[in-house]
Amino acid sequence: MGSSRKRRSSSLASRIQAALAPHVIPGARLTLGLSGGVDSVVLLDLLATLTGPLDFRLACLHVHHGISRNADAWAEAARSAAARYAVPCVVERVDIAPFRHLGLEGAARLARYRAFERAGADLIALAHQRDDQAETLLVQLLRGTGVAGMAAMPILRDPGSGIAGQGGRSEAWSGIGSRGPEQGERRVLRIVRPMLEVRRGEILAHASEHALAWVEDESNADLARTRNHLRHRVMPVLSEVRPGATAAIARAAAHFGEAASLLEDLARIDAAACTHEGHLVVGKLATLTEPRARNLLRFHLAERGIAPPDARKLAEILRQLLWARGDASLEFALGEWCLRRYDGRVWIERAVRELPSHLRMRWTGERLLSVPALGGTLRFEPGVGDGVAAAALACDVEIRIRSGGERLRLHERGPRRALKDLFQEARVPPWLRSRLPLVHCDGELAWVPGLGADWRFRARPGEAGVRISWDVA
Fold first, then answer.
1. Strand 337-342 and strand 345-350: pairing?
2. Which of 131, 203, 237, 385 could cross-link with 461 by S-S, CB 3.0 to 4.6 Å?
3. Can you tell me the distance from the alpha carbon of 224 to that of 231, in angstroms, rounded to the nearest whole number?
4. How many Cβ atoms sit within 10 Å of the Cβ of residue 358?
């Protein structure tokens, strides 16, 4: 009987090794997301035996959400579990408040993934297993989600694989950049889930055989939660009706994953034909069939890290984009973002925050000047014969917002013209005009985002200059 248990345990370790081997390079830093539950404790036990054969450095990260009254005890249990193998374990406390709009579970998940990003690992290992795959698909079916929502979790989530691994960037218009939520200094995660083909029963058997200690999340017994009800009441019945139901549902999730990948490939093809300067062109969007247009719009949002709305709202947004009058002002709220139609294109910007009644900031030579009140950063890059003359900036330089009556002279023989007229000609969206930083030199307007430098302040050929740009956060 003892030898049978050893063969089973050895078999499980070899399966995990086979799942990990293609994704772990020699000397890699692998961090396990250690909750302290049975799945992650078993994965820790298996990974500890593989550090030699696969040549990686193992560490653990426990994310302390502070939601449960037992959270401190879970953190201590995670530390103790890691100490059993002399593996370092970091406990990171996170604040889920900024993500509350996603619901409690969604907020905790996003805060957790932010912590994983900060871990500095080459690879994050998570302990999802086959029963998780099946339960997730059933939960998503009950929500009426689309194909992508029902796709299986991949063994490897790589920066280059799929929408979820990408950051978004769109150019708002000439002179102004818009940075998506996945940009900046944040690290794109490589996540590996080596136990996706392992059944929950096998995990429990391994934990029992090796006398492993783990903690139970008390919320797992709450049948008011859909996933728990499916786990404890529905899945056992399905397994009676059809033995191997869990495996079959997990395979279906993999098929959905293939279908989602094909839809993404189609969206990329359509995006290449329907996008100009980072914006969907409404006229070209109208040439697609309605399902393809919805697929492209969903992809366009997801690429920027924006959760697409439900099917009904997405269909209504598309209908209005395509059929509302050309001069109609369209605006759709998407959480912290806003989707608009302007100049025949689809614009996606962060929702307008409350603007200050006036703004005056001094520039003292910094390469980067953050302007929190306007939600962006001014960049000053040295150059020659381009931008504002460096000599012109050797004065009292001040950043302001429009107060009315400002004028700019863009050409040597041209008149000084009102910003309102220049903005209209340059097709600067109306909602952006009031939240642009205007650069003044000794009280005179010298540079405006999207328009450029006033002729009087412009660097001449061969003259030292400063290229100024405005990036929206």
1. antiparallel
2. 385
3. 12
4. 9
Which residues of the chain does CATH 3.40.50.620 include? 2-155+193-247
- Give pLDDT tens digits for 374-408: 888 999 999 999 899 999 999 999 999 998 889 99
Nearest to 454, CA basis, from 383, 392, 400, 380 = 392
Q: Which DSSP state fits 394?
A: S
Domain spanning 254-347 has what CATH number? 1.20.59.20
Are the beta carbons of 182 and 188 closer than 8 angstroms?
A: yes
* Neighbouring residues of 384: CB distance < 8 A, sequence distance ≥ 6: 459, 462, 463, 464, 465
* 8 A C-beta contact, residue 433 and residue 455: no
For residue 134, the model assigns a pLDDT of: 87
Region 154-158 average pLDDT: 78
Structure tokens at 190: 């490589």
Q: Extract the tokens encoding 40.
A: 């992650």
Encoded amino acid at 267, one letter: A
Backbone angles phi, psi at 374, to 5 degrees: -110, 0
Distances (CA, A) of 359 to 178, 372, 401, 437: 21, 11, 6, 9
Please, what is the average pLDDT of the chain? 85
Structure tokens at 57: 């450095």
What H or E segment, with its residue span, contains residue 238?
helix 235-241
Nearest CA-CA partner of 435 in 453, 418, 448, 416: 448
State residue 228's pLDDT score.
85
Task: Tell me if residue 340 falls in helix, strand or coil.
Answer: strand
| 191-192 and 279-280 strand pairing | unpaired
Res 351: pLDDT: 77
Average pLDDT of span 457-472: 92
Class of domain 2-155+193-247 as given by CATH: alpha beta
Q: Where in the chain is the domain with CATH 1.20.59.20?
A: 254-347
